[in-house]
Amino acid sequence: MPNPAEPTDFDPDAFLVVPARTFEDLRIGEVFRAPSRTLTDAHAAAFQTVSADNHPVHYDAEWARKHGHSAPVVHGLQVLAFTAPGATLFPHFIGEVFISFLELSCTFLAEVHSGDTLYPALTITGLEPKGSTGIVVTAATIHNQRGELVLSGQHKYLLRCQ
User: Is the residue at 103 inside a domain?
Assistant: First the structure.
């Protein structure tokens, strides 16, 4: 029986969630999903505290109804945050070749309310080699529990090539 106090062949640097890949290993059409999440009033309140966004559309049910909303609306930036690449397995797949998050854009297509469940995904739509680096372009999407697309956007990441 091995002595737990003795060194082993274990290498923490080789302890990966998934085998790391390179820019050249990525393929257009690959999808990286994030776990679904149901938003609660507590999530909205926490984001309101962090963002300092105190517009009543986000917390006053009567104000929201009076202005044509069925309920307070979750902050758009909070919804956008669900597309963070780190919420998916994408950073694990690209391992040490990640250099930077270059840009993002999005369109908010439908309101999100407390109680909605969100299903975020990143789909590779472009791979642009640039010498010793490459740009990965992804479509960022979020659907709700009714299958409605509530956010559509794009991310770009800079990776090292091998």
Answer: yes
